[in-house]
Amino acid sequence: MTNTIRFMGDMSRINEEEKGFINSRLEKFVDQHGARFTEMLVNIDIDLHKETSRGRAMHHIKLFVETDKGKFHSDGMEFGAEKSLHSAIEKVERQMEKHFNR
Predict the structure, then answer these.
(1) Which H helix or E strand runs over 90?
(2) Nearest residue to 40 via CA among 48, 53, 29, 24
(3) Which structural domains are found in the chain, ordered by start?
């Protein structure tokens, strides 16, 4: 089983705390769903926008999951990396469930 996580975009504008959270959340996602697939490639693209709310920047996270059984993609746009990543992962998980339960 091959699982890979690849980051795209400008990661220099994201602080270390957010990087650590993103890394751990994606590893958890791969651990949860990696058993279904023999191959899984997770591409994540993170864009920071200038808008802020209470000191938190607007994050636009695009998540592309390529597996041997299909391709899934989503995006999340929220204030803070945690919320936008959570939103994107939830959308991909719903797509996976819909794909496997048909």
Answers:
(1) helix 81-100
(2) 29
(3) 2-100 (3.30.160.100)
